[in-house]
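Fold this complex.
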Amino acid sequence: MLSNYRFIAFETILIKEIRRFARIWVQTLVPPAITIGLYFLIFGNLIGRRIGEMGGFDYMQFIVPGLIMMAVIQNSYANVTSSFFSQKFQRSIEELIVSPVPNYVILMGFIAGGVARGLAVGFIVTLMSFVFTDLTIHNLPITILVVLMTAIVFSLAGFLNALYANSFDDISIIPTFVLTPLIYLGGVFYSIDLLPSAGRIVSSFNPIFYMVNTFRYGILGSSDVNIYWSIGMLCVFVGILYTICIYLLNKGTGLRH
Amino acid sequence: MTSAISISDLHKTYANGYQALKGVNLEVEKGDFFALLGPNGAGKSTTIGVISTLVKQSSGKVSVFGKDVATNVYETKLDLGIVPQEVNFSLFEKVGDIVTTQAGYYGLPRALARERTEKYLKKLGLWDKRDNRARMLSGGMKRRLMIARALVHEPRLLILDEPTAGVDIELRRSMWEFLQELNRNGTTIILTTHYLEEAESLCRNIAIIDEGRIIENTSMKKLLNKLDSQTLVFDLRDELQEQKFEELAIPRSKLVDVHTFEVDLGKDEDINGVFEHLQAHKIAVKAIRNKSNRLEQLFLNRLNGA
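Structure:
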C-alpha cells in the first residue's frame, strides 16, 4: 500500500514535469533543435567538408554524437533548474512539502522529469542528424547507458543548483559560466589528438569530455578515453550528487526555514 | 480523548535571531471549530508552518491525532489539510490539474483523484473553471481553489490561515456555510482570521497568541462573558436635539448626531432602563446595534493587558 502510494506520487511529479515542458514546447523543445540544426549545417556541413576527417570519420559523423550529448546535458540540467526554482519562486513547492511524499521520491520525480526532457531533445536532434549524415549505432547498450546516466548526472546537478538558487540569476550563472565552457572544451568538435599535451591534461579533468567520448564510442565505435573508466566515473557522480541532494532536502536547505 | 492537535512548549527562533514562538502550548479537541487569533507577527503563521513542516521548530513537541509530527511524518501529513494565507499554486496550470496533482501527492489513484477533484471543485463552485489557467481566477476563486486542494485527500484536520482575507461579503458567507457543513461532518477546523466576527460566528473555542505566546485559551462563550461592558448605538426615527437629549438623562450616554446616540451598558445592566427614558419622552427607536464586535473589544482589551 505504502510503496504503491509512493509510486503514485512519483508518477504524479513526472507527469507534471512532462506536461510542463510539453506545454511550453516553443521554449523547451524548439530552441535546442534549431541551435543544434545550425551546428549541423554550419560546422558539420559547410565547414566540415573542408576539414575532412576527424578521428577516422567524416567531420559531420564525428560531431553528431557530441552535439546529441550537448543537447541532452543542457536540457536535462535546464529542465530541473527552471522547474524546481519556479516552484520555489511561486511557492507551489509547498504543495509537495506539506504532502507525505518522501524526499527521495520528490528528488526522483524531478530527476525523471529532467531525464525525460533531455532524452526528448536528444531524440529530436538524433532525427535531425539523419538529414545530414548516415548514422549507425556501434553499441546500443553502451549508447543508451551513457546517455541515460549523463542525463541523470546533469538533472541531479540542476536540482542542486535550484536548491541553492534565490533568484533567476542564480540558475543562469552555472550554465553560462561553467557548463557551456565544459561542453565546448569537452571534445564535441575535436579529437583530443589535436591538443598539445597540456591541453590533454586539462581535458582529462573535464567530466563532460569522458561522457562525450563514451557516447561517441557507443555510436561510432571510437573513443579518446577508456569507456569502462568513464562509465564507472558516471556511476560515482550519480552516487555523490544523489547523496548531496538527499542530504540537503532532508535538511530543508532552500525550502524550509 | 485524543486531541486533534497538541502543542507543548513550542519554540521557534529564525536564522536572523527573531524569536517567533516562545513556548506555545495548545490543545485542540477532535471535531472542534477553533480560532487562533493574534495581531500581525504574533506567531500564528509560524505555528501553522511548524504543524505543516514548512517551518522547522527550534524545540517543543507537536502532535496530530496523538502522533508526533517529527517522528510520524507521513501518517500525520495524511491527516492534515493546509490552506495557506497566500496563493501558493502555479498560476500557469489548469485549475483541475492543480487539484488532481495534489491528490496524486497523497497517493490517490488517478481515477479517484479525478473523482475527488470534481467533487470539491463543484462544492466550491469552481467546476466550470476546471480547464482555465489558475491565473485567470479572481482573488476569491483562488482562495476557494486552495480550499479544494487542501480537501482533496479528505483530511481529518483542516487548518485555514486567513481564508477569507480580501473576499467579498457574499462569498465569505458562503465559505462560512461550507466550513460549518464540513465541521458538522466531523472535520476538525482551525482558523486564523482578522475578521473577529468570523471567529465569533464560526468557532466554539479560541486561543489568542501575542508575541509568540498564547495569552488566552478558552471557549468562545466564556471569553464573551468576560466582557465588562458594551457600547450600544441607537438609531432614532426622528431628530433629537442636544437640549432634549440632556433632559432624557440616560446614564453614560452620548449624542453622536441628531439621529444617533450611544450608551455604555455594564455587564449586569439591562437595556430596559434606557427604553423607559425613551418611552417617557415618546422617542422612537429605529434600530439598535453594537458599536464594535464584542470579540474585537475583548481581543483589544486582552492585547492591551486589560
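Chain A touches chain B through 30 residues (CB under 8 Å).
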